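Table S5 (text form). Sequence records supplied for joint modeling of the two-component complex.
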Amino acid sequence: MDTSDSECFESADEDIQSDEELPKKVFNKDCQNLLKPNPNYELEASETLCDPRTEESKITRQNDASIKLEIAVKGDNESKNSNKASHSSSETEDICQVTSKINTINVIDDSKPVLSRKENVEGDLCNIKQVEQETVKKSRSCAKTKLGSKISKDTVKFEITPEKKKSKVVEKEKLHKTENNIISSVQIVENEKLKVDNDDQNLWDDEELDWGTETKLESDAKHNISKDNTEEYKFQPSPSSNTPQFNPHIGKKSENQSDNWGAWGSWGVSVLSTATQSVSSITSQLTNVIETGLGAADPEELARIDREEKRELKESLGKECEQDIPSEAPSVGFGLGNLVKLVENTGNKVISGGLDTLETIGKKTMEVLQEGDPGLKKKRAFLKIEQNKPVLSQILREAKERAENERNISEEVYMKKMKNYETLFDDHHGLVHLEALELLSKQCEIKLRNLQNSLNGEQYTEFLETMDQIKELCELPDEEEEDQISILEIREKLKKAVTEMNVQISYDKLMTNWEESEVWLNALNMNICDEKELHQQAIETLAQLTSLAMEQFHKIGELLLIKDRRSTADEADSLVQVTTTLTALIGIAAAKFSEKLNSKICESTNKEISGLITNVFFEAANSSSYIQDALQLLIPVLQVGAV
Amino acid sequence: MSGGPYNYSYIFKYIIIGDMGVGKSCLLHQFTEKKFMADCPHTIGVEFGTRIIDVCGQKIKLQIWDTAGQERFRAVTRSYYRGAAGALMVYDITRRSTYNHLSSWLSDTRNLTNPSTVIFLIGNKCDLEAQRDVTYEEASKFAEENGLMFVEASAKTGDNVEEAFLETAKKIYQSIQDGRLDLNAAESGVQHKPSTPGRNNLSNDNQANKDNCSC
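The corresponding structure-token record, covering 858 residues in total, follows.
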């Protein structure tokens, strides 16, 4: 609450002071307003009630919030005003209001006893009408501070003027109604609190909660009440909107007052500005409780300030009472004095009991506020998260997609790894051997070109002839009818070829590899074996055989290059032999696997199998072409040896 | 031996060179198999080893060419320098002759590779401290003078073996990131695996990896 607000109150108070009838009317208005403390609130409540979708908790929170706000803001204003020590006769109204408030809230807490107490008090009070009026006069003449020490007495007396008796009864009834409403609402609030308690405690621990500013509260409340637009009315703190309400020149007083009360109800911009010290001390306590709950200011600081204020007040009051009471007593008389004391005591009880109750209620409300409102915070945070949620969910969705993709990829990769011939060829170092062989071949070509460039005339022609001859030597024979070559024959041929080349290489590894595959194939239980597995094994075998072939071709190239004495023709012949033998081996392997796959077709007539068979032959052709390429790459190596 | 086929972004070609018996094949074996091969046969021409490593979050397949150290293969192995992104030049700290030949190996490397090729000098057999013939200091000085990375390692114990291979890879990767190494050049020794199907977020990965790249 800023100073502008409190200044507002002051000016308003001064305006109100000018009218003597005001306290009465304010009181009446107060009573009415207690029934409907806030027109807006009522509107909201009715609206929310009308709305079948609206949850009960919403209403509760609205009620709760509005009531609490009233208290809080009132306390704030009053304490500030009291600090300013602006004294005026309007203090009576304040007391009236506060008292009625207290009564109301007392009723909320424990209706029957309080009511009975109130009746008692009223009865007593009726008996001492005259005293009251006198006291009214006196109290008005008295310094405001004096009243502070005897809040209850004076307050109660002021209330029960004869004219107001009827209205008081009416008020009582109304209060009773209100009480029921509020009781139920408080209960609901408590239920809500429990709910919210269970809801989510994590966010409640959030230390950054700041309920100090009305705006925040407002926004929080808004959030809480699920974007209820009507809520905005209730929490309009704008001083400018309040200011006209306090203009005494506008309209009738009743209107003016109703405006005041309405404003007070909604934002505490009330006629209570020049609160008595007693009220201020009460309210400061309340304020302390409330504001502590709200976290409006440092609770310790507030408490300290309050304590200091109270001490000061007590001291000053003590002095003034001492001075005033003697002058008061003689004029009223001794018997009256007793009565007054009785009333005073009773009033004290009522007020203090009311205050206790009010404090309890306040504390409880604050608990609810604190616990319920962090719920708002929580909800707000939740809403905030919801704003961020698309991002989060998007992230999650993306993560999921990525995971799915990766799974697909890994499956793909797995399938590729399982099926892709090239990959298998690479894995078995076939590719890198081929690459190395290429490098060797290139190196030899460069060497030959350099040599060729250095030659001229007859030597050059001779050189070219030699080159061509070697190329011819390495030409593969046309498709021979060596289909029925056995593995044993292949082994023999390879061995012979290696010997002719006179290099220390061996195809044992290659042959062993094939034999292992053959054993696997023969041992294969066709009933169990999946055609895909069989196909995979075929590809794997082909890739492995080809890789080994590449390695040997590469080694042959290296060894030929470091060989001391070259016999190019033999080497070429051997290489051709090796090449044809290896391609024959590849053919055998492919045929064998296809045969097995074909038997699967007979079993299940799966059309996919024919595709797999085709693939096996395709990769076999691939293997053969690699082998033949390797031979071509070796030609420069042979040529280098020939010159 | 065989990692996943396409689960790497780059292929770096390494070549291991150095005199016969300095432990080139053993270093490779230690790196790829994490085992020490006690009686390693003479390498014929070149042998290969592969391992997929992680550099700054990038999977890199190292294709390592382990060349024969025998002098008779020198001509053959010279063919293999081409396109090496990294060259591990190995000498034996217990045999000064292997150290003395480094300049020859170095000149071969310089002549046969491209300027961006990372050359890493490895003084192997550092476990044989008692038989040390080449001090760390002089080798270190040699490396510094020639702008080489240097480490003393042991293929037997595995000391610094991993480091040598990984540091080289990091340096190469850095060169790529800096743009010093042109991936499009045929002889860069680096093959960039084009985004394999479904791996379309590779560029993002690169971006992300650049950020938390510690090298």
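Note: The mean pLDDT of chain A is 64.
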